[in-house]
Amino acid sequence: MLHYRTIPVTAFAQNCSLVWDDKTKRAAIIDPGGDLDELLEEVQALGVTLEQIWLTHAHIDHAGATGELARRLQLPIVGPHQGDQYWIDALPEQSRMFGFPQAEAFTPTRWLEDGDTVKLGAHTLHVRHCPGHTPGHVVFHSPELQRAFVGDVLFAGSIGRTDFPGGDHGTLVRSITERLWPMGDDTVFIPGHGPESSFGRERRSNPFVGGT
Questions:
Q1: Region Disordered: which residues (predicted)?
Q2: Ramachandran region of residue 45, left (φ > 0), alpha (ψ -120 to 50) or beta?
Q3: Mean pLDDT (whole number) for 189-210
Q4: Please, what's the b/e burial string for 44-59 (b: 16 or more CB within 10 A of its CB; e: otherwise)?
């Protein structure tokens, strides 16, 4: 069985998630944006072995600690889509702009494409490319858990910003309606910020995409 725990990190309260297999205790970390010591303490407390870093996108609050974590533990970096190359290249500038610790440069071990999968032990999560917030944003969906880790595509009652370079409102709305909604109304999503919700709830009540 897969399990996950979400730990808010950085001054932006970004939802970093640890995902692990309870049988093998193998784990992946999604969007390690910062507060690395706190995240590693959580890994130790859970008694899991961190094996992979998965990235939804490369904004500083989601990817800021990725390079250091990969270097310290010799971990592969999986994702995002290559459309976020610009944002990865700009991580040092982003860290200065937003007052984050200096971000280390990195090159993903594996870029992700729409329809790819990522594996953790015997478990498989499906990858959907969901641009709009950033060009290379991806989402990780576990049908087994009925959970989706959606980064900054969708929030409870809101959607991602599209006023950064490479953002596009229409593209984001299409990503939500064409790629998230088909995952099913009962699927619970873990957003990049704020509380969890379900796709069904957002389809009914979200003022930006409700009724779509």
A1: 192-212
A2: alpha
A3: 96
A4: eeeebebbbbbbbbbb
- Give the CA diameter of the chain: 46
Instruction: Tally Cβ neighbours within 10 Å of residue 164.
Output: 12
Q: Would you state the pLDDT for residue 105?
A: 87
Could you tell me which CATH class the domain 2-205 is placed in? alpha beta
Examine the pLDDT at 64 and tell me if it is beyond 80. Answer: yes
Produce one character per residue of 79-114: b if its CB has 16 or more CB atoms within 10 Å, e if not.
Answer: bbbebbbebbebbeebbeeeebeebbebebeebbee
Our separate counts of H helices and E strands in the chain read 7, 13
CB 159 within 8 A of CB 167: no
Is 212 a residue whose pLDDT tops 90?
no
What's phi and psi for 38, nearest 5 deg? Answer: -65, -40
Pairing of strands 158-159, 147-151: unpaired
Q: How far apart are CA 145 and CA 153, in angstroms?
A: 20
Look over the chain and give the mean of its residue pLDDT values, rounded to a whole number.
97
The residues spanned by each domain of the chain are 2-205
Please report which residue ranges of 10-164 form alpha helices under DSSP H: 36-46, 60-63, 66-73, 85-89, 91-98
